[in-house]
Amino acid sequence: MSERETTASGAGAIGGALPEPLRRIHLIAIGGTGMGSLAGLLHARGYTVTGSDRALYPPMSEALERWEIPVAIGFDPENVARARPDLVVVGNAVGPDNPEARAAIDAGLPYRSFPDALYELAMRGRHSVVIAGTHGKTTTTTLVASLLLATGRDPSLLVGGISANFDGPFRIGEGAHFVVEGDEYDTAFFDKTPKFWHYHPQSLLLTSLEFDHADIYRDLDHIKSVFRVLLERMPGDGRVIAARRDALREVCASAACPVEEYGLGEGAGWRAREVEVDEKGTRFTVVLDGSPVADARIPMFGDFNIENALGALALVHRLGVPLDEAAAALDRFEGVRRRQELRGEVAGVAVIDDFAHHPTAVRETVRAIRGRYPGRRLVAAFEPRSNTSRRALFQEAYVDALVGADRVILAHVPPGPLYSATGEVTEFFDAARAVAALRERGVEAEAIEGAASIAETIAGGAEPGDVVLVMSNGDFDGLCRRLLDALAG
Questions:
Q1: Where is 315: in which H helix or E strand?
Q2: Distance between CA 26 and CA 52 in Å, rounded?
Q3: For the range 148-155, what are the long-range contacts, defined as Cβ-Cβ under 8 Å and sequence gap of 24 or more?
Q4: What's the whole-number average pLDDT of the chain?
Q5: What is the assigned CATH class of domain 16-115?
Q6: Which CATH superfamily is domain 341-488 in?
Q7: Domain ranges in the chain?
Q8: What is the dihedral of CA 439, 442, 444, 450, to 10 degrees?
Q9: Closest CA to 201 of 90, 142, 314, 119
């Protein structure tokens, strides 16, 4: 991002004035988790919503069908003509050469990016509660909204995942708070600022900060720069709740309002002690400034999820929720699809689906599943699918992350063109090299091309008691379903 782009103004500056009345909205690239969630929210608010995308995948394809939102497959100017929209929302997966977006803009139709549309049509006038960070955003966003709802605050929500508590990725409430997952990825081809700037947070929770999105950021310092701007723009009477991590401590020095820290290590104001894990979840004592203040239980596993719960408790407490009420409500959290989700157990083999794709998330997910299923053989299947994971940047880090499994299957993703605003991509993740490194460290490992072959291989060598952990930021070509079918057959 250029200096101009990293200091750009917020929502509503691009795309023309919103028409009155506004009835019909068309979303280009509707199938992404954010865009699809926005489509559902707008539909629920009474707008006539249509959309288009190259293809649709679960769970968003199922959600759009359930909401009866018509979606055209393929981008074509005729989709816009047929929809006759008052407003067009352009997703950040859309490039400047997209024929549908080009036609809409050239026709003079009002248009918005996803975050600007969300803020202007749903968030403005509410207390903006933004959850940001490299890891744990979806889970923590849903946790915060769940705690506010369970304690009578009736929040609104938009999150990039399917929440079991809300039976979907959004909620329209009558309360003062709008809780949103804030992503640092860029906004649209016509606005390269990060999405979370556009939500104007009054309360902000930061879970973590690591290098990611190598297609648009040069390095960790580049990502830090946009977080600093986010913190500098906080109102003086706002509140920041941040995990106690070195990178976050550095950027939080720029905050224009008070900052509280949480974490498992020494020094954090909010901490967890006396952690106990059983087959149903994790119990711990919440400690604030050295004193125990509540007992908590979460139906989740792993250190990251304990930290997510601590951050959520700290945030809702500062929003006025009594701590004992919030802690008691944690146990009613039902989770998010594709976050350590048990998809089924066939012939004594459990199949877990998880969105993990950054090496830190992969490592912590492997550890969490180890804790959830002690003594059982763990088979980890990983698809390096994201723009960052397909590069060689984390070649060794993925080996370190996966070494905690007993057996590792890597999807053999062939190198191909990758979008990059930071220079030509010349070095790609090497699955065969990672397999060799894992074998040297005593882990059974292989690289296999195609979900059908991976499912056949895992099922063929499965034993009762095995736990198969499937990790990808995409559908992995239906690997979980294929694997359950293969185990049943």
A1: helix 303-318
A2: 8
A3: 148/175, 148/177, 148/179, 148/316, 148/319, 148/321, 149/173, 150/325, 150/329, 150/332, 151/316, 151/321, 151/322, 151/325, 151/326, 151/329, 153/177, 153/319, 153/321, 155/129, 155/179
A4: 92
A5: alpha beta
A6: Mur ligase, C-terminal domain (3.90.190.20)
A7: 16-115, 125-332, 341-488
A8: -40
A9: 119
Tokens of 422: 């930071």
At which residue do the structure tokens 């003594």 appear?
Answer: 375
User: CA distances (Å), 359 to each of 6, 58, 399, in order?
Assistant: 27, 24, 9
Q: Which residues contact 416 (CB under 8 A, 6 or more apart)?
A: none
Q: What is the pLDDT of residues 147-181, one digit of tens each?
A: 999 999 999 999 988 888 888 899 999 999 999 99
Q: Is 276 helix (H, G, I), strand (E, B) or coil?
A: strand
How far apart (Å, rounded) are the C-alpha atoms in residues 358 and 368?
15
Contact in structure between 247 and 347 (CB atoms under 8 Å):
no
Nearest CA to 369 out of 385, 356, 383, 386 is that of 356
Instruction: Check whether 390 has a pLDDT greater than 90.
Output: no
Q: Residue 471 and residue 356: Cα distance in Å, rounded?
A: 5
Q: Kindly tell me if the per-residue pLDDT of 3 is higher than 60.
A: no
pLDDT beyond 90 at 346: yes
The DSSP 8-state label assigned to residue 478 in this structure reads: G
